[in-house]
Amino acid sequence: MNQEIKKVLKNSIITTIIVLIYGILIRSPIIYIGMFGGCVISCMGFYSICLEAEAAVRNNNPFKVTVTGYLKRYLIYGIYLGLLIKFLGIPTFLGGAIGLLNIKFNIALMAILTVIKKIQSRLKKLK
């Protein structure tokens, strides 16, 4: 796997652990069930995407591999959110939905930090 992909996965796991600790500290099931579960499923989904990309390169029918993986991932996301809304209610469902955005949040954060570093280097050159 690429170094940046490993970095995203590592940062997402750290975020997941922080969410779990925060949820336990404030004793909120919305956070330690909904958000933590969403973060875990998000990390597993991202890892699944990485494996599917590698398999698609080696396979004769990459379209089938990628579409099947896509459908499996979104079926898992849908089942998870459906169970949350049915058994734990809308607030936990929203927490789970936010947890599923864990990977996207970490990718956006890495992109923002890259832009900030570029701006800082340009400002140093001007001085």
Provide the fold topology.
Layout: H1 3-26, H2 29-58, H3 62-87, H4 90-99, H5 102-126
Helix pairs in contact: 1-2, 1-5, 2-3, 2-4, 3-4
Number of helices: 5
Based on secondary structure, the structural category is mainly alpha
Radius of gyration: 18 Å
The major β-sheet equals:
none
Strand content: under 5%
User: What is the overall shape?
Assistant: flat
Order of helices and strands: HHHHH
Question: Low-confidence parts lasting 5 or more residues at pLDDT below 50?
Answer: none
How many domain regions?
Answer: 1
Mean pLDDT: 92
Distance between the termini: 39 Å
Task: Describe this structure in a few short sentences.
Keywords: Membrane, Transmembrane, Transmembrane helix. This is ATP synthase I. The protein is mostly helical.
